[in-house]
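Thread: Newbie trying to understand structure tokens

Hi all, I'm a second-year student working on a class project, and my supervisor (Dr. K.) asked me to get a predicted structure for one chain before our next meeting. I've only ever worked with sequences, so writing a 3D structure as a token string is new to me. If someone could post the tokens and maybe explain what I'm looking at, I'd be very grateful. Here's the chain:
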Amino acid sequence: METTRVSSKGQVVIPKSIRDRLHLEAGATLSVGVKNDAIVLHQVRKALRLPTESEIDAVAGCLKVGGPMPSRTDEDAAIAALFRKEWGR
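---
Reply by user tm_fold:
Sure, no problem. This is what the structure looks like when written as tokens:
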């Protein structure tokens, strides 16, 4: 457990080890709440924006396939999986 202080402006510094562990960067948005006697912070993640059909078409020819061409549904599922892996949703 680490400690920090509240400034005269009500600001709190989140220790670096915790910021690193949670991949918090400057400008990250946090929601603040109270549970019992504890202050609770949650990182607000940006909503996942799925690619448009034209964006998918623009990169579809760049994909290397070792077998038969995947269906559009397979491509959509693969791209969605990559987005989830990258942004955690």
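A couple of things are worth pointing out once you decode it. The chain is about 35% helix and 15% strand. The two ends are 29 Å apart (CA to CA). Feel free to ask follow-ups in this thread.
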